[in-house]
Specification:
Layout: E1 6-9, E2 11-14, E3 17-24, H1 41-65, H2 71-81, H3 84-95, H4 100-118, H5 120-123, H6 126-141, E4 155-159, H7 164-167, E5 175-180, H8 188-196, E6 200-202, E7 215-219, E8 224-227, H9 231-248, E9 264-269, H10 272-278, E10 285-290, H11 304-318, E11 322-326, H12 354-359, H13 361-378, E12 382-386, H14 392-404, E13 410-414, H15 417-421, H16 423-427, E14 432-435, H17 437-445, H18 463-479, E15 482-485, H19 493-502, E16 506-509, H20 514-522, H21 526-538, H22 542-550, H23 555-558
Amino acid sequence: MATTHKVLHGIGVSAGTASGPVAAVHPAPGVDQDEPATTDAVAAGERVRAAMKSVADSLTQKAATAPDTSKPILEATAQLAGDRGLAKAVDKLLVTGVGITRAVADAVADYAQMLSALGGYMAERVTDLYDVRDRLICELRGVSAPGIPSLSTPTIIVAHDLAPAETATLSPDMVLGILTAAGGPTSHTAILAAQLGIPAVVQVRGIDTIEDGAIVALDGGVGEVILAPSPADIELLAERSRRRAAALAGSSGEGATRDGHRVALLANIGTADDAAKAATFDLEGSGLFRTEFLFLDRDTAPTLEEQTATYTSVFESFGKRRVVVRTLDAGADKPLSFADLGPEENPALGVRGLRLSMAREDLLDTQLAALAAAYEATGADVRVMAPMVATVEEAEWFAAKVRAVGLPVVGVMIEIPGAALRAEHMLAVVDFASIGTNDLSQYTMAADRMQGGLAELLSPWQPALLQLVKAACDGGRATGKHVGVCGEAGGDPVLALVLTGLGVSSLSMAPSKVNVVRAALRLHDFATCQQMAAYAVDARTAKDARVAVTAIVHPTLLDLL
């Protein structure tokens, strides 16, 4: 059946336009539904470890011959394939008699749920994890790994998701573009596509209807996909791409509005590997280093030496640029087996974040000692903040702890409405604050951020949320202290203007978003940002807020959206 003309939308993650025939990626075979129950868990565990080693070795070999831009991502995926915590998780299922491929799939699913709960960049590592799962299952079943079909002509690749190990081997000469139903803007696949110069759009609804060989056109900047495009459609996309490239051409250096009002542009990171990658971007440091990934999925807490080595590596990556470290943020959707304080009826409102650190002071003391040692070793611009701070007393307790070990700059996360409303008092006892818009949204709107059906309530354009951001910034102005945003809301180039107008002094986001946000800031003066902020806060609904602000943005910015 011939494909009819239709426009689909997704998230553009690699700028540029392309048109041509599509080819679908072969799906993974999945769990063996006919496999027997496990009767010898030890032998099955050895088979799984052998498969993990084979997959890890294969990925390491790919990395050895890959371009320098692809090598770190393939190496990171190889590390996942050899993860001892994953092997132990599979063992626990094998002991119960679960079939071997089912045990792998279920263990990965649990690990993926943990990453998804963390949100942002880490949630997008799930794609890498699923790639490892599929390769392990294929290895155990003795079948060929799923992948991209052999291409004889330049083609647009279509997939539910595309593993970084597959993306890294693509040739821009044969792959015109990439379309996926899943994925995200900071996934390894998105990063690789941009490095290879292949236009790409992720989270495209409806691509499962596209037949092999059908002609499509895509715009990897705005996330538009046209089925059965006309010549005029193709030319329009190409012209828009040219305008966008021109708008971004001068986007470099410090973040600032057109009239020079400074807004630091920073990266959200979670691991030393993330830091090494983010440091290659033109940005001013890290506004959120999520340290919990050292602690998750292990039976014992990381040692002082292990933490010191990791923190030192992260600080060295950024040199003299700032690194804002969030201390252990665990509990609720990120439980720790070695710090289990018992069941809670509502973990999201229970002992999480700083509350866990206050209950297990030993964990915080070791972490702060490691941070202090890494700071002493590097002389880096280190700023340490606590998650989930609710009261001034908590802020004072944490600040005393940080200063006692010789770390010079201490702050708090504003993720609870009460903290935003009392920001002036909070900031009187610390040096800065950073607003975590993801958690602040869910607590403001009483909506679980992991429940997809409530996404509309969690829009960062909700006027109630923006009013709390304003309250926090008012506290910053009253005390002369900096207030930043480290939720992914800062990576929306239009919302970044609103946040700037509200008084935010730094924006931390996925590294790939910095260039567009910097360009957006330079198209507007600070007074216009303040006007946008007023419109957004006074709007009746989230939709009204975005419409009102978009109506007065510089026309050039529309080419960047």
